[in-house]
Amino acid sequence: MGEVILRPYQHALMGEIEVPGDKSVSHRSIILGSLANGVTKVTNFLDGEDCMRTINAFRAMGVTIHKEGSTITVDGKGVSSLKEPMEPLYFGNSGTTTRLMLGIISGLDFFTTVYGDESLSNRPMDRVVQPLRKMNASIDGRSDGKYLPISIRGKKLTGMDYSLPVKSAQVKSAILLAGLFAEGETTVTEKTQTRDHTENMLEAFGADISRNGLSTTVTGKNTLSASNVHVPGDISSAAFFLVAAAIVPDSKVTLKNVGLNETRTGIIDVLLDMGANIKIENQQTVSGELIGDITVCSSDLNGVTIEGDMIPRLIDEIPIIALLATQANGKTIIRDAEELRVKETDRIAAVVDVLSTLGGDIKGTDDGMIIVGKTTLSGGKVASYNDHRIAMMSAIASLVAKDDIVIDDASSISISYPTFFEHLQSIIS
Question: Catalytic: 316?
Answer without folding.
Answer: yes
